[in-house]
Amino acid sequence: MAKQLGAKPRIGLLGTGPWAGHTHAPALAGHPGIEFSGVWGRRPEAAAALAAASGTRAYDDVDALLAASDAVALALPPDVQAPLAVRAAEAGCHVLLDKPVATTVAGAREVAEAVEAAGAASVVFCTLRFAEPTARWIDEQAAVGGWFLGEAHWLGSLYGTGSTSEYAASPWRREKGGLWDVGPHVLSVYLPVLGDVTEITAARGPADTHHLVLRHTSGASSTATLTLSAPPEAAEAALTLYGTGGRAELPRWDGAVGAFGAAVDALVDAARTGEPDACDVRFGLRLTEILTAAEAIAAEGARQDPSASDSPAHSASSASGYNRSGGVA
Question: Using one digit for the tens of pLDDT, what is the confidence trace for 168-212?
């Protein structure tokens, strides 16, 4: 059974990496409405250092932190996050998850089922859904409707020449690339505005680049180019919608700490009201289903020889082979 929140909910942090240090810990430590109950990490020395810098306590035992918390925020690689989120939900904690929830549909579904079985609240921190002014823009475009086409590209330079980003050392990002790291951001905008994805075409580009073409329940189509390997000179994130009202461009946003604070507020509100947040664990599961299908379709296409006379057109087969449950026929 999920824990009841007091006047000042106790929220702990699982994770001690750069994302936790730059975003989660400062937001939790600076949030006036919650008590930052502690930090646990796979490296005790890192947990101790982050806790000391944040004015809270480090825990060597994750279960002890769960017992001392009403909710936990997770800043861990997705397939480390998933089993710990299940453990947190089983301990009665509400969960503030990072994206993606997991990199397998089975892993993400296990989290969703554990959260629902516990009656816990959940939020998946898709930055654009909580940052200002992007969150407001998404709501406005969803209300307008009449969209015909979406075009997006997220050209990260994490692995571009000369990059010194500390996030480049992340093994899961190196393995899964831009599709899984920045793909959730683009999908988190498209789905509430254009509707769920019904068809996918996907193809590989240079390095970790993926090109997606999507059809949505509204009838609109969208495209997305996703990479972490663009040259630094070409790095950019942009999304444009086209429809009966003309065109609308996703506004710029600044930083993630404020957005994470808004996600904390959303989690607390969902826990107190019992009303699921629109960006909850079920939404996170849906993102994992879509990304899994896109990855499989792109990998299949990479094995096909377009010059072979008996090779079918991959875009047609991939679109018809996708279903809403996330499977590829």
Answer: 889 999 999 999 999 999 999 999 999 999 999 999 999 999 999
Relative to beta strand 197-204, strand 58-59 is: unpaired
Helix (H, G, I), strand (E, B) or coil at 120: coil
Amino acid at 95: V
Q: Which residues contact 263 (CB under 8 A, 6 or more apart)?
A: 96, 123, 125, 130
- Retrieve residue 264's tokens: 């904390």
C-beta of residue 13 within 8 angstroms of C-beta of residue 36: yes
The residues, ordered by sequence, that sit 6+ positions from 213 with a Cβ below 8 Å of its Cβ are 200, 201, 202, 221, 222, 223, 315, 319
What's the pLDDT tens digit per position in 116-133?
A: 999 999 999 999 999 999
How many angstroms separate the CA atoms of 197 and 223, rounded?
Answer: 12
Q: What is the largest CA-CA distance in the chain?
A: 68
Distances in Å between the alpha carbon of 63 and those of 29, 39, 91? 21, 12, 8
Query: Is residue 126 a contact partner of residue 99, using CB atoms and an 8 Å limit?
Result: yes
Contacts (Cβ under 8 Å, ≥6 apart) of 38: 12, 13, 51, 56, 57, 58, 59, 65, 68, 69
Q: Nearest 5°: phi and psi at 224? A: -150, 130
**Residue entry with tokens 């296409």:** 301
Task: Give CA torsion, residues 205, 222, 292, 127, to 10 deg.
Answer: 100
Q: Indicate the pTM of the whole model.
A: 0.92
Average pLDDT of the chain to the nearest whole number: 92
